[in-house]
Amino acid sequence: MRDAEMMDDLRRYCRTAALALLCLTASGLAQAHPHGWIDLRMRLVVDDEGQLTGLHQSWLMDPFYSLVVMEELGRAGGEGGLDAALDQLGSEIRDNLVPYGYYTELRLGDDKLTFDPVNDYTVLERGGRVEFIFLLPLAEPQPLAGQALSYQVFDPTYYIEMVHEDENGVPAEDSLRVGGELDCETRIHQADPDPEMVMRAAMLDVTDEAEPGLGRHFAETGEVVCR
Fold this sequence. Notes:
13 strands, signal, DUF1007
C-alpha cells in the first residue's frame, strides 16, 4: 500500500478511535490486531458514610505508544513545553472518551450505574510511559455495605487491550483497591473469550472497524464484595 493510502486509512480510523493519542501516533501504526495495551489500576472512592462516590482510575500506556507520543509532543514544542502538551493531551483524551462512557461499565448487583462528567484528570510520565489518571464520579452515591459490585474497563473496538497492572503475571496488589473503612474482598477475573471471538479479533487489521462491543469479550472483570 502506498504511504498516502496508508495514512488515509489511519486517519479514517482515528476519527472513530476514542483515545486521541492514537491519532498522534498514526504515522507509526501500520499493524494489525493485536495492537497496543493499557495497564489499569482502579481505586473505589468511598465517603465517610460508606457510599461509593467515584472510580479513581490510572491508565498506563504501553511503552511503544508512550515513546511515540512523547516524541510527537516533544517535536510539537509550543509555549509551556512538555507539561502544557501533556495537559492538552489529557483534555483531548477525556473529551474523546465521553461518547464511550469512559470505557467503563459498572454494576451494583444487577443495576448498571451511571456517571457524571470527568473534570479531575491529569497526564504524566511514569517510568518512561504515559499515564492518564482521572476520577470518574458516580451520578449518585451508592451504599456498598452488603453489596456486590462489578466493573469492566474496555475499548469497545478492542483496538487497545486493557488489563489490570500485574506483577509476574498476577494482578498487582494495588491494581484494585477500596478506599474508606469498609471490610471488602476484591477479585479480578481474567477474560475467557470464545475461540471464535479470538479469531475475529485476530483477523482485524488497522483499517477495519470491529463489531460494536467486541472488546467486552476480552475484558477482565473486577469484583468487590463489602460487608
